[in-house]
Amino acid sequence: MKTIRYALTAALLSAAAVSAHAVDQVKVWAAACANCHGTNGHAQPGMEALAGKDKDDLTQKLLDFKAGRKPATIMHQLAKGYSDDELRAIAAYFAAQKK
């Protein structure tokens, strides 16, 4: 019984570490957006703020940039550097930020 308890505890701790790493990775990806869209999506005047925007809308915009369906100066090139799942994670990160 102790062995099972230790195994379950180890599995939970491992899952928490993986989850924390995933959050850190998304923050690294999102930091690349800061030059134009501000820290955590709080943009300077003249740029689009991303913080608190609808996750599905952000995701669709990013996927449209990547596919070339949405015209852009640089976003279409930047979006191509991420997988669709990574773009979804970035959109979710910005959607979770307070406006």
TrEMBL record:
Residues 20-98 form the Cytochrome c domain. The keyword Transport applies. Keywords: Electron transport, Heme, Iron, Metal-binding, Signal, Transport. GO terms for molecular function: electron transfer activity; heme binding; metal ion binding. InterPro entries: Cyt_c-like_dom, Cyt_c-like_dom_sf, Cytochrome_c_Oxidase_Subunit. Residues 1-22 form the signal peptide. The keyword Flavoprotein does not apply. It comes from the Bacteria. This is Cytochrome c553. It comes from Tepidimonas ignava. The lineage of its organism: Bacteria, Pseudomonadati, Pseudomonadota, Betaproteobacteria, Burkholderiales. The gene is fccA.
